[in-house]
Amino acid sequence: MSTLESVQRVSTSVPPAPGREKGFATASRGMSKRRMLLDVITILGAAVLAALYELHTGPLAGAKRFWHGTLIYGRPMWILLALLCGFAVALIATSSRLHLYSPMRLGSILHEQRLSAQACFASGVVLTGTLYLIHADDIPRRIVLVTLGLVTISLGVRRLAGRFLLYRRFERGIGTRKVWIVGTGPQAYALRHHLESTPHLGYTVKGSSESPVSRSSLTEATGEVAGMFEAVFQRARRQFVDEIFFASPCDRSIVLNVLEQARTHGVDVRVALDMYHDLLWSGSIEYIGQFPTFLFHPDHVSELGLFFKRMFDVVFSSLVLIVISPLLLAIAAVIKLDSQGPVFYFSKRIGKKGRVFHCVKFRTMVRDAQEQRAEIEHLNERDGVLFKVTNDPRITRLGRFLRKYSLDELPQFFNVLRGEMSVVGPRPPLAEEVKEYELGHLRRLDVTPGITGLWQVQARQDPSFASYVSLDMTYIDTWSIWLDFKIILRTIGVVFAGTGS
User: What average pLDDT does the structure give for the chain?
Assistant: First the structure.
């Protein structure tokens, strides 16, 4: 039985210790109430500013009109206050539902800002819907919209400022949660490293110890295990530890013993999931109903990111083709004069998800180059499924020049416009290469192939197929728009240096 399952089954079977409500839970609730109060003050201030601005009146005159019930003619003030209170209640309820009053240290800044804007939008929909239902046509809609805008901006700024102030306190060691880690091995080490290298989480590691149940023989010795856990809790309390992290798998009976002693000593306990060990550090938790599950190898690239990548490919390729069109015509003419055969060479390549397409390049070899390949197979300088011969006799004189400066690949920008390739990505392999791929190599085909990539700018002359695949995997796992920009800039340097094949 896993530790997670054990905790879920026994956590409700142990009665809470007297006085435990005075701990961190009470402090968290106190902070939540303060955040709710600040939200109410923010809403009130935004409504006042919006009314003063839209009604073109000053603070004193506005207060006088409010007091006499003439702030908005024909509309009783109690209705305006009721609408404002209803909006505040809706915002607080939505924010609470989105866990915006939970400890800020456990979420990211962008996630909190997105949820804050989402709460304001949902509450604004409730407010505008209420105005429509009560036929409040005399209330200026601009006041409502300006109020919603000011509330959204103010809450975002306030939460951002509060977060940075909290981070500053954590950096000085103020308000952090002291933790003790129980366990050894990669998971315990990774947990400690993560807590120490991420100060904004608000944890201070006070020490660690070996798990009393790291030896399987102890799992049957209930008394010995209980004594060892007692020693762990005593050491933790001497360090004024707030939480104990268990980073080792535990049996259900042992977890029950841990929870009992934790409540006795007034210490919170967190159990790091032990399923699949280090794989969890690259996974994410998703709840299927009430069951927590881990999603391994998730698609980290957002649809928005892929959209921007495609837009960049189209715009960049169009501009490049327009600028170099005279060069393309000149190269085509020289190829015709240099040797017999077509100007372009179309090669069947394997694209994203195994899609077959024709990759277009300027012809750099003699017409019957494919038929001559069998004669020079023994000269191959690459390992694995790659093929390259430095002084390939099939390459024409002009072809050597075009390859040296990668000019033969310029027509591939047409493949980019067609959506078959991207400007940056793994190189599209030949069908015969893919047939020799191992299962792990097929990850290269999860993304759109590119004209240039990490391998082209870092290890183009490296004969190792393992290095070739490793760099492609690194690109796939760490992709970003900025990485594409960096690769493009480095590619320009490689082209002008003439280090192409």
Answer: 75
